[in-house]
From TrEMBL:
Name listed for the protein in its UniProt record: glucan endo-1,3-beta-D-glucosidase
Protein source organism: Phaseolus vulgaris
GO biological process: carbohydrate metabolic process
Organism classification: Eukaryota, Viridiplantae, Streptophyta, Embryophyta, Tracheophyta
Pfam families: Glyco_hydro_17
Family named by the database record: Belongs to the glycosyl hydrolase 17 family.
């Protein structure tokens, strides 16, 4: 992790369990973390770092070895639910070099999982961010950018074939801080008392639902088929930038946890699986704002007063509250 004062893997797992947090996202197959997760009951998104994509894409044996080392060696005592092959890769911009490797790496990892008969239990996907959305307003007109369709459409086709969800990182904070003239703070924090955006049959009282449904619509508008979305990151910083205050972060995160038991206006029938970024403040990240997304201080003290488990409103589906733990394997 990008911090020099953070707890050990075993301490982190105990912190998850004592706070009734039932799911975790690891960005890297950190062996100490995977060992600590054994028999914890915590479900896991296991990440493949972008730096590993080329090797997995170009050599099926490398993918099989990766699966053996990081999945089969720990399954089923570690409950791996998803493998996120790459994070926020885009065919345009700084990560564009990786884009050619994402789908072949996904397919090679999937084939290695399938060869073990585990493809119904462990779903292989990739995580994208909202920059791949070209139009998000109104949500029903959501569409992917024209210059990413040749990258993303084949991935969506694979996800449809494999019955796997698309992992999407959704941050109302960045939308709000980038456009506070048009986006109100209550709309971003889930505190608007009324519908803010009316979109045909759907009404939106918060930006999170509108952003999420713009992704649902973008997938639907490809006409490829129905693919579910898992929100693989969302959070709000408590310092370091415009609108990044302790109170705003507390309100956003508390309301995001409360929201976890339901779906979105466009897809209301199933709760939205949502992972909060991040477990800890990380003092070596940059820019400054990236240091302040934690739910906990490095001392393991809660930053915010709310809880995550059975003491919450009965509508909260505990298993839908999760947190990300960005361990690096060089820890």
């Amino acid at each position: 992790m990008m911090g020099n004062n953070l707890p050990s893997a075993n301490e982190v797992i105990n912190l998850y369990r004592s706070n009734n947090i039932r799911r975790m996202r690891l960005y890297d197959p950190n062996q100490a973390a995977l060992q600590a997760l054994r028999n914890s009951g915590i479900e896991l998104i296991l990440g493949v770092p972008n730096s590993d994509l080329q090797g997995l894409a170009t050599n099926a044996d490398t993918a099989r070895q990766w699966v053996q080392r990081n999945v089969l060696n720990f399954w089923p005592s570690v409950r791996i639910k998803y493998i996120a092959v790459g994070n926020e890769v885009s065919p345009v911009g700084g990560s564009s070099w990786y884009a050619q490797y994402v789908l072949p790496a996904v397919q090679n990892v999937y084939q290695a999982i399938r060869a073990q008969g585990l493809h119904d239990q462990i779903k292989v996907s990739t995580a994208i961010d909202m920059t791949l959305i070209g139009n998000s307003y109104p949500p029903s007109q959501g569409s992917f950018r024209g210059d990413v369709r040749s990258y993303l459409d084949p991935i969506i086709g694979y996800l449809l074939y494999a019955s796997a969800p698309l992992l999407v990182n959704v941050y109302p904070y960045f939308s709000y801080s980038g456009n506070p003239r048009d986006i109100s703070l209550p709309y971003a924090l889930f505190t608007s008392p009324n519908v803010v955006v009316r979109d045909g049959q759907y009404g939106y009282q918060n930006l999170f639902d509108a952003m999420l449904d713009s992704v649902h619509a973008a997938i639907d508008n490809t006409r490829i088929g129905y693919v579910e979305v898992v929100v693989s990151e969302s959070g709000w910083p408590s310092d370091g930038g415009f609108g990044a205050t302790y109170d705003n972060a507390r309100v956003y995160l508390d309301n995001l946890v409360r929201r976890a038991g339901r779906g979105s206006p466009r897809r209301p029938s199933k709760p939205t699986e949502t992972y909060i970024f991040a477990m800890f403040d990380e003092n070596q990240k940059s820019p400054e704002i990236e240091k302040h997304f934690g739910l906990f201080k490095p001392s393991k003290e809660k930053k915010y007063p709310f809880g995550f488990g059975a003491q919450r409103d009965a509508k909260i589906v505990v298993d839908e509250f999760n947190a990300t733990y960005p361990l690096k394997s060089d820890m």
